[in-house]
Write a structure and sequence with these properties.
Family: Belongs to the DCK/DGK family.
CATH superfamily: P-loop containing nucleotide triphosphate hydrolases
Organism: Rubricoccus marinus
InterPro entries: DCK/DGK (IPR002624), Deoxyribonucleoside_kinase (IPR050566), DNK_dom (IPR031314), P-loop_NTPase (IPR027417)
Keywords: ATP-binding, Kinase, Nucleotide-binding, Transferase
Bound molecules: adenosine-5'-triphosphate, 2'-deoxy-guanosine
Pfam family, one: dNK
Number of domains: 1
Structural class: alpha/beta
Number of helices: 8
Radius of gyration: 17 Å
CATH class: Alpha Beta
CATH topology: Rossmann fold
Helix content: 40-55%
CATH architecture: 3-Layer(aba) Sandwich
């Protein structure tokens, strides 16, 4: 089983990845943030660092994908590789923060590298409004994200909506504005049951050994 959690900056992907991994006993794959050599520079000067950052994320996520394909156990991934090009790089190009030459170069590299990747068995998209994203980004308190502009988040949200509509593989959408699955056990239970039912619909065998609703750690 390979599940990916998708969503805008601060939507709650890492938190949900941790919760799913713990509950189902899956291996978690988190995106690299603390050891990312470009992220802080990127937020300080997007036009200068956008191409470098996209190539870094592409190589790091591609390595994860290959590791995931080799994993003997089920895994859950914090953000899918598809979001790099469909959401972030496209947005940087639209906003004039990555020029056409770099964008086309990056998109061609992305297409070559990802052509043979296996898509997730289920993609869980966390939908969150911009006020929720801002609140959650602030609550996490990464200094270099303080300058993220509202129009940047709004455009990313718009691209997420277009993409999730077109996304051709199994998916589910979770509205997170009124669900605090980090702090509220009932909300967490609600999400876990929805994911479990969706997986059961796709794969009528149990989603994970030892993880029956009502028996896991709900909180
Ligand atoms: N549904 C929620 N309700 C309340 N707080 C939440 C919720 N989801 C996440 N949070 C909080 O918001 C902050 C950001 O969450 P998290 O790091 O999981 O987001 P993310 O989507 O992984 O972000 P990024 O895109 O930057 O990696 C954390 O402090 C987390 O505890
Ligand atoms: N430009 C850009 N392209 C990406 O592919 C990408 N993936 C993640 N991020 C940013 C969002 C969070 O600040 C932080 C952690 O998710 O990294 C990205 N930024």
């Amino acid at each position: 089983m390979y599940v990916a959690v998708a969503g805008n900056i601060g939507a709650g992907k890492s938190s949900l990845t941790r919760i799913l991994a713990e509950y189902f006993g899956w291996g978690p794959f988190f995106e690299s943030v603390d050891d990312n050599p470009y992220l802080a520079d990127f937020y300080a000067d997007m036009p200068r660092w956008s191409f470098n950052l996209q190539v870094y994320f592409l190589s790091s996520r591609f390595r994860h994908q290959k590791d995931i394909e080799r994993e003997p156990i089920s895994v859950v991934q914090d953000r899918s590789i598809y979001e790099d090009v469909e959401i972030f790089a496209r947005n940087l190009h639209y906003m004039g923060l990555m020029d056409s030459r770099d964008y086309e170069n990056y998109a061609a590299l992305f297409a070559i590298m990802t052509a043979y990747l296996r898509p997730p068995d289920l993609l869980v998209y966390l939908r969150a409004s911009v006020p929720t994203l801002v609140r959650q980004i602030q609550s996490r308190g990464r200094d270099f994200e303080n300058g993220i502009r509202l129009d940047y988040l709004e455009r990313l949200n718009g691209l997420y909506e277009d993409w999730i509509e077109r996304y051709p593989h199994p998916k589910m959408v979770i509205e997170t504005d009124t669900l605090d699955f980090v702090n509220e056990p009932e909300d967490r239970f609600q999400i876990l049951s929805r994911v479990e039912s969706r997986l059961y619909g796709l794969f009528p065998e149990p989603a994970a050994s030892g993880a029956e609703m009502g028996k896991g750690d709900q909180g």
